[in-house]
Amino acid sequence: MTLSLAEEQTTPDFERLAELFKLMADPSRLHILWCIGQGESSVGEICTRTGLSPANVSKHLQMLRLGGIVACRKEGNSRIYFLSDPHYFTLCAQALITLSNTHQEVVSSCDE
């Protein structure tokens, strides 16, 4: 498989990618992203699906919003959260599929 960058980009933006991975490197945030990837959600809906407290969900959503991963809109007194780009869900889903298809006991060794 050959990977390529956009024509105008000659060097990968490793700093930006590292920041994205830092934001996603928390199980609670990944669970929240998974919920939002299933469809736009309010804090209450996310709490119900994840079992996290509203304060905890709000804290994580703020980090994800400031990082540009999620966005929100007001709907009455509620805020509805959605992914700013559906590729974030694809990234999470692909990683989960890969992990579920990889056996932990299969470890490559240089000693062989």
Overview of this protein structure:
- This protein is mainly alpha-helical and 112 residues long.
- The protein has one domain: Arc Repressor Mutant, subunit A (Orthogonal Bundle).
- Helices cover 53% and strands 11% of the residues.
- The longest helix is centred in the last third of the chain and has 15 residues.
- The radius of gyration is 17 Å and the shape is globular.
Mean pLDDT: 87
The total tally of domains equals: 1
**Percent in strands:** 5-15%
Biggest sheet details: 2 strands, antiparallel
Oligomeric category: single chain
Major sheet: arrangement of strands: 1-2
Silhouette: globular
Low-confidence stretches: none
Following the backbone from N to C, one meets helices and strands in this order, namely HHHHEEH
CATH homologous superfamily title: Winged helix-like DNA-binding domain superfamily/Winged helix DNA-binding domain
Tell how many strands the DSSP assignment holds: 2
Give the N-to-C terminal Cα separation. 27 Å
CATH-derived architecture: Orthogonal Bundle
CATH class: Mainly Alpha
Short description:
The protein is mainly alpha-helical. The protein has helices spanning 14-24, 27-38, 43-50, 54-66, 87-101, and strands at residues 70-75, 78-83.
Question: Secondary structure elements and their pairing?
Answer:
Blueprint: H1 14-24, H2 27-38, H3 43-50, H4 54-66, E1 70-75, E2 78-83, H5 87-101
Antiparallel strand pairs: 1-2
